[in-house]
Specification:
Helix content: 55-70%
Shape: globular
CATH architecture of the largest domain: Orthogonal Bundle
Distance between the termini: 26 Å
Number of strands: 0
Oligomer: single chain
Largest sheet: none
């Protein structure tokens, strides 16, 4: 059983002062790391888009990433799963090398045209930097876990500009039937500090998404979210299974550096042969389009496949922005069949597929309200809940403890 936050005035004061100081430090470090990462990512993305021939360098770039992890970063390739394992173990810790390794791997992946995201990098950098604070003092295991939770919250909040969702995500993604009350205040504090540092100190802006029309909350309109939410859940399940399936297939290649090399050949060859340049990198411009105009129905499938090949073969980055892409474009396609505004369905898919693939419906609902406005909250909540239920009992994070979900009908 978790103990509640101490209520004795003296002990409570010590608790607050400790976490205000430590949480601020984690927020400053993780927010600054995210700012540097976003600036770097924007630069490499611009270079790639101006020189699309760089896609031909994806296979050797993959070999370099694979070799560096195999030779100097053994174990770090587990990424976010290593963070989860660290939180679940009695003595949580993370190696400091995780931050520079994932930063290097992600930037190289995006420079040469891999289909990947950015949340995994920010979360891993935040958690790795937070873990180093724990090594400076002798801390009990629960405090060590809270440090990692703060790092995750700070990284997520700052990279997406969503402090509420970042804090709740850090608590919800490791959910094991109960949340440690002692971690709630530190997670929110670190998330807000990281967000402020990234946005206000570094001046890093985030993409703005706009839902111009929210239909009335009538029974008929809300009922239309049921089939939409189910489809979003099935899309999340496809995304999860595709990623894990590719990973299992490539694990049969004995020499690890060859895995991203072969994956790079497949991704580059597919894009060259089909002209599918829209689906490389983050794909943010396409996500913005999904809120504005009808798009090809197959966009979500193309992004799912290329992301599975990229990350499943060993390239670095995150899954969340590709999940945004998948959900937004799928919602865009559903607008041809469901009589709800195109932008509203795109927004519901944006967070719904993410909720299903990560088993974090509450965090994703909050994220949607932070990004799209409170008026869409009911639609977003229904989408996230149904996607969570119908996404199956898996996750993009193989180490996520889902024993509680497996007990559901």
């Amino acid at each position: 059983m978790y103990q509640k936050v101490p209520q004795s005035p003296i002990i409570l004061l010590k608790y607050l002062l400790f976490w205000i100081a430590i949480g601020a430090g984690i927020g400053i470090f993780s927010g600054s790391a995210s700012a540097i990462f976003l600036l770097s990512l924007d630069w490499v993305g611009g270079v790639r888009d101006a020189h699309l021939w760089l896609l031909g360098g994806l296979p050797p770039a993959g070999f370099v990433i694979g070799y560096c992890y195999h030779r100097y970063g053994y174990g770090l390739e587990k990424g976010n799963n290593l963070i989860l394992a660290g939180i679940y173990t009695p003595q949580p810790t993370l190696p400091w090398r995780m931050a520079p390794f994932v930063l290097f791997g992600t930037l190289i992946t995006h420079l040469f045209g891999g289909s990947a995201g950015r949340e995994g990098t920010a979360v891993q950098m935040g958690a790795s930097l937070a873990a180093q604070l724990g090594k400076r003092w002798t801390l009990d295991k629960n405090t060590g876990r809270t440090l990692l939770i703060c790092g995750v919250a700070g990284g997520f909040a700052s990279v997406f500009g969503t402090p509420l969702a970042g804090a709740v995500f850090s608590l919800e993604w490791l959910f094991r039937r109960k949340i440690d009350p002692n971690s709630i205040f530190p997670a929110f504090w670190a998330a807000f500090i990281a967000y402020w540092v990234c946005d206000w100190v570094w001046g890093i802006g985030h993409t703005t998404y706009f839902i111009p029309e929210i239909t009335p909350h009538t029974l008929v309109n809300l009922a239309w979210m049921i089939p939409a939410g189910i489809v979003f859940g099935l899309a999340a399940r496809l995304f999860v299974e595709a990623g894990h399936g590719v990973n299992r297939l490539f694990s049969t290649i004995a020499y690890p550096p060859f895995r991203p090399f072969v994956g790079g050949l497949l991704v580059a060859g597919t894009v060259y042969l089909t002209g599918a340049y829209t689906y490389i990198g983050l794909g943010v411009p396409r996500i913005v389009e999904a809120f504005e105009t009808p798009l090809p129905w197959y966009d979500f499938l193309a992004k799912t496949g290329l992301t599975a090949l990229t990350l499943g073969s060993g390239f670095k980055g995150g899954e969340v922005t590709p999940l945004f892409f998948t959900g937004a474009t799928l919602g865009n396609a559903l607008a041809a069949y469901i009589p709800l505004p195109l932008a509203l369905l795109a927004g519901c898919g944006f967070v719904g597929v993410f909720a299903g693939a990560t088993n974090t419906p509450l965090a994703c609902t909050l994220m949607g309200m932070e990004l799209f406005g409170l008026e869409a909250g009911v639609y977003l909540g229904i989408s996230c809940l149904l996607a969570f239920i119908f996404s199956g009992k898996g996750s993009i994070y193989a180490s996520q403890d889902l024993g509680w979900k497996r007990s559901l009908p």
